[in-house]
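new request in #modeling-help
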Amino acid sequence: MSLKEKDILRFTTAGSVDDGKSTLIGRILYDSKAIHDDQLETITADSKRTGTGELNLALLTDGLRAEREQGITIDVAYRYFETEKRKFIIADTPGHIEYTRNMVTGASTANLAVILVDARNGIMEQTYRHAFIASLLRIPHIIFCINKMDLVDFKEDVYDKLVKDLSGFSNKLNVIDVRFIPISALKGDNVVNRSDNMPWYRGGSLLYTLENIHVSGDYNHIDCRFPVQYVIRPQTEDFPDYRGYAGRIASGIFKVGDEVTLLPSGLKSSIKSIDVMESSVHEAFAPMSVSMQLMDNLDLSRGDMIVRANNQPVVSKNIEVMLCWLSNTPLKKGVKYTIMHTTNECKCVVKDVLYKMDVNTLHRIENDIDVQVNDIARVNISLSKPIFWDSYAKNRGTGSIIIIDPSTLNTVGAGMII
Amino acid sequence: MNRLVLSHIEELESEAIFIIRELAAQFERPVLLFSGGKDSIVVLHLARKAFWPSKLPFPLLHIDTGHNFAETITFRDNLIQKLGLDLRVGSVQEAINRGDILEEKGLLKSRNSLQSNVLLSSLNTGGFDAAIGGARRDEEKARAKERFFSHRDDFGQWDPKNQRPELWNLFNGKKHPGEHFRIFPISNWTELDVWHYIQKEKLEIPNLYFSHEREVIDRDGILLAKSEHNHQLETDSLTSKQVRFRTIGDVTCTGAVHSVAKNIEEIILELQSTRITERGGRSDDRRSQAAMEDRKKEGYF
C-alpha cells in the first residue's frame, strides 16, 4: 500500500449549548473509524458513571479533568480523521459567549466552518455570533447544519424557512460559499449517508460535502510574499558560501530566476535556487516551507520580506485593525504592547478605539469603547517601525497580527488588518 | 493532485518545518527530546530538513529510564553516530542512585512518572529554554488541547486551563527567566501520517516496530515483554507470540500487539483496519482517566 495523495481540509465547528455538536462530531469520527474500540469502551464506562447512562460522545472531546467534572468544554480541541479522499483537522470550539476567543482561535486556521442550528429553535443569537466570527476570520466556506430534523418530522418547510432566514443574514456577511444541510446527528440522517427520511433534499450528506468542497482556490497564489524566518549559513567546507533565506511562503508562487524586491531595503535581486533539503525545486507556492538563495549577497534577516517588484504589500507604521481582545485585563489605550506580524515583531500602541461590534446583532457600539475580554473592536494602531502588510481580506498570512502584553508576556489580542 | 495543492503529508511537513525554524529563531538554547521512538525519529528528520545544509543548531536529549528496550538504545547510538549528532543523556538510574528521586514501590512499579523529574533537572543543567518533542494531539485527549508552543512555568508545570491562544502562524514564545517551552511540531499528525512519512522519506526505525517472535507476559490483555525489569506475577502467563510494538516506551509499560506486519507497507495496512488506539497498550495511561493530564502538569513530555 503506497501513500495515497490527499489534501487537508481544516474546519471548525460551532454551535450553541445542546444543539448536538458533540454528537455530530462523535458520529463523524465513529463512522469514519476515527474512534477506536478502547476509546469507546472508556467513554461508555464514563457515561455510565457520570450521567444518564446514554453514551456521551462529548466525553471524547472533553479531555481535561475540569471539563469532565464541570461538563463543559473549556478549550479548543483538535480532532483528526481521514477518508479515502481527504485528511480532516477539526478545531472543535465551545460555543458559549465567554469563549469567543476560542472560536476566533479555531477559526484562524480553518478553511470551513460547520455551524449547527437546532431545527426546533430556529436561529439563536449564538448562530449570528458564530456566523459573524466565521466571516470576520474570512473562512471561505460555511455549512449551516440544520440539526434535529427528526424532532420536526423531517419537514421540508421547517428547513426552507431556516434556509431563507439564514441566507438573508449571511448575505450581509463576506462569505464566499454558504451551504445548508438538513441533518439528524443523533440518528445519522445526512451525516455520512444520504437520508431516506428527507427525499426532498437533493444535496449531498455533510461528509460528502466536506470531502468534495473545492479548497485549493482558498490559497492566495497571486501576491508573492515570502517573510524571512531564519537565515541558514552553514559556513562548512562543503557549503562555504551557502546563504539560504528560510521560511514559509505566505502567498503567491516563486520561481527560480524571478526578479524580486527585498523589504524594507527595496533592493533588487533574483532567485538563484529554491531548496527543500537536498532537493531543489523549480517553483514553490504557499504554504510550502523552503530555503531560497538569491543571486546577490545582500543583508537580509528575520522579519524582512521577499516580494515581486510589481506587486508589493503596504509598508507603513499605522494600521487599522479589527481586534479581538483575548485577555481578562482590558485593553489599555496609549500603553506599549508587543506586536507579532509574519516573522516580524515590534512595539505598538493602540491610539484609538473607533467602535466595538455587538457580535449578536452586528451593530456598532460607539458609546462604550472599553475593550474587554471577548470584545471585538475596530482600532487604530501605531507601530515602532514599518511592517509590510496586506489587508486580511486579501491575505490571511500578511494581514493577521497578535498583540502581547509586555509584562505578562501573554497573547492578549488577535487582529485582522483592514 | 492539482499543481498548486500540497498533499496532506507535504502540508504537514511544511507546517512542522515552519514550527522548528520558529523555535530556532525565538529561543536561545533549544534541545530536541529524542527517545528512539518513531515520532522522535520523524521530528529529528524534519529538524535536519529545516536547517539543511547546516547542522542541527541544537543538541538532542534522551531521558533514559534504565528500563528501555536494548534494541532502542542500540538503534539510538547507531543513528547518533551515523548522523554525527550531539546527544545528551539524562539518566533516571543515576538520579535514583544519587537519591534525588525515589523508585516506586511494589511489584508493578514503573519509572514512567520519574522521567518528569529527570527531564526537568536535565533541562535546568543544560540551560535549555525550549524542548522540542514528538507528541501528537491525536494520541490522547489531554494532548488534544496542547499548543504547538506550550508554555511551562518555572516549576515546569503545564496549566491547561490557562494556555496562550494560538492563532494563524503566529507563535508567541516569550517567557520570563526560569520558564521554558515545549514545542510540538507534529501536533497535527496522526499515527498513520507518521508511518506514511517514514515510508515516503525511507527512514530507519528500530526493529521492535516490525513483527517478531517474542516471549511475553499476558497481563489483563496487555502483552509485556519478558524482561529483567518486568516482575512476573503468579497470575501472569508467559507465552511466545508473534508481536510488534506500536509505541516504544519503557519495557515495563509498553504493551506489544499481535502482528504479522513485517514491513512498513504491512504496518500501514494493519493500522487502517485496527480498532484499538496506539496508546491502548500503554499501561501508564490506564492508571486513571486523567493519567496523562496529571503527568503533563508535572512536567511530563
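bot summary: The helical segments of chain B are 8-26, 38-51, 70-83, 92-98, 114-126, 191-201, 264-273, 291-297.
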